[in-house]
Amino acid sequence: MQQAAPGLIPAPQAEDPAPVVTKHEYRDAMARLGAAVNIITTDGPGGRHGFTASAVCSVTDTPPTLLVCLNKGSSASAAFHANGVLCVNTLAPEHEALSKLFGGGTPVAERFGAGEWKPSATGAPILAGAAAAFDCRIVRTVEVGTHDVLFCEVVGLATEGAREGLIYFSRRYHALTGPDES
Ligand SMILES: Cc1cc2nc3c(=O)[nH]c(=O)nc-3n(C[C@H](O)[C@H](O)[C@H](O)COP(=O)(O)O)c2cc1C
């Protein structure tokens, strides 16, 4: 492709192929990929923050590592990079309203004004009653398009909370019931 003059955005060239898959087509297909809903929190020198995330995935159990995808443009981004720690709070059906509150557009104090929070060993807030909580140190960050992929080593766990799960599928929340323990 032809080089643009410094400071100018290159104009599309005739030979640039149209994207094979558009952003909207991709999003529509991803709506069919159900995923657990989590609130990712942090605290430290960069301040307390948190956001709702479904882009959370296990990487390996040796060492225990998961990844979280964080939009670089979100109000939470700077705090996560400054603190270098986070807690993945995996939600239960009773946390649907909390998920919406942390899903963008509300001030941080209002987000943490709901729910019961206490600091984990890393200092990141843990949600009382979460189905699971993964306390982590961020060990590597990879930038991909609009997002940062945060690779996180798990240094603490809490699994005494709810036995039900909250899934986001087809742009709606769904409750998952756990095994019958009676
Ligand atoms: C169900 C659900 C899943 C989301 N998953 C992600 C995610 O995986 N990564 C992400 O960066 N944002 C995700 N978001 C959006 C963030 O929660 C939102 O952008 C974040 O709270 C920052 O918004 P703010 O800039 O207004 O603070 C999700 C939102 C919802 C409601």
Structure in words:
- With 182 residues, the protein is mainly beta.
- It has a single domain (37-168), classed as Electron Transport, Fmn-binding Protein, Chain A (Pnp Oxidase, Chain A).
- The protein contains four helices and twelve strands.
- The model has no long low-confidence stretch (mean pLDDT 92).
- The protein binds flavin mononucleotide.
- Flavin mononucleotide binds at residues 37, 51-55, 69-71, 74-76, 102-105, 168.
Estimated helix fraction: 10-25%
Number of helices: 4
Distance between the termini: 65 Å
CATH top level is Mainly Beta
Low-confidence stretches: none
Q: State Rg.
A: 19 Å
Produce the secondary structure layout.
Layout: H1 23-30, E1 35-36, E2 38-42, E3 49-53, E4 56-61, E5 64-71, H2 77-83, E6 85-90, H3 96-101, H4 108-113, E7 117-119, E8 125-127, E9 132-144, E10 147-158, E11 165-169, E12 172-176
Antiparallel strand pairs: 1-11, 2-3, 2-6, 4-5, 5-10, 6-9, 7-8, 9-10, 11-12
The structure holds flavin mononucleotide.
